[in-house]
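Input record (one chain):
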Amino acid sequence: MDSIRQTKERSPAASTARTLTGKVALVTGGNRGIGKAVAVRLASLGADIAICGRDEQALQHATDELATHGVRVYAERADVTQAAEVALLVKQSEAALGGVSILVNNAGMGLFGPLQEKTEQEWDTLMSTNLKSVFLVSRSVIPGMVERKGGDIINISSLAGKSTFAGGAIYCASKWGLQGLSGCMAEDLRAYGIRVSTVCPGSVFTEFSGRGPKDPNKALAAGDVAHAVAMIVTQGPQSFLSEVDLRPITKP
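The corresponding structure, as predicted from the sequence alone:
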């Protein structure tokens, strides 16, 4: 182990590539799409990774891929809209890997169409997934970050949290709410050395249930969002990159 460590210390490229070694990242919805891309990118930078999702097969595939980066991986099937499951997820993740220093609240869903055509159940499901989950997971992770006097919380929001469009009432409401929640969290926590940031992508080519088929040539890739997250968590300790707006070069 000593010889390996010395070899890495002599190599600037290696030290740059593993800037998150010793960190633990929890990525919700990390078994597919944007969440998986983020988890893989953080693993490539040396962070140990905890992921959760509802699809056990997808979790296993993601775990196998993450393990190829030579980091520790913990995966658990969990519904992040349920407080008891969230508490258990955080407890078991930290027991397996150590205190969470990077939290990426990525779990989310899309639901589009005129407001008058939506049901109360659809409203509740989307708000719980896109907004309540951020409250629950953050609330469980923050005490440990406060105790350790530092950490990064990155909430994956959307440009829909800053704009409006036909058929977007419920989805936009959830993302506008997430923007407000994130901003207030940032002010509450910055005194403890905890940075809260949002990444607001436009159209991303994933399995996400958007408003319709997407042209991959006119959309962001999941890796583009992962790059933004990596930029946030590798910034200097004296800086605070609070928000990243991410757009495809070619308009959809």
